[in-house]
Amino acid sequence: MGKVRMTRSENMRRIKAKGTKIERILAKAMWREGLRYRKNCKDVFGKPDFCFKGKKIAIFCDSEFWHGKKFLEGERFKTNSDFWEEKIKRNIERDKEVNKRLESEGWTVLRFWGKDIETNTDKCVNKIMRYIQKDSK
User: CB 3.0-4.6 Å disulfide test: which of 77, 101, 106, 121 passes with 81?
Assistant: First the structure.
């Protein structure tokens, strides 16, 4: 049992908040399309993974685990469930608070699930480009 906890703890410690695989995939795809963005915008509420400040577009790359997609679909945790449910519920609430505040300040908020970025990268980039072009008109 001790070894399992040690391994899980080590795994969780290694998960990065910035520069994740899904962020790199989306960044490269946007760059190829000529989109020039800011990464990890610290001066924008919620610290979007990418932003277009002039257009007021904030983009978040949400992993299914940390942002609760599977939890919302009914999947439950097998171990330490009280801790994880509380943590994921709080992350979901935080995402809603960030969206609400940014939208109240005139920002467009785009959130993409990690699997969508991995499997439908072009679709994600096309959506971003539509919002950038819509703002240009």
Answer: 77
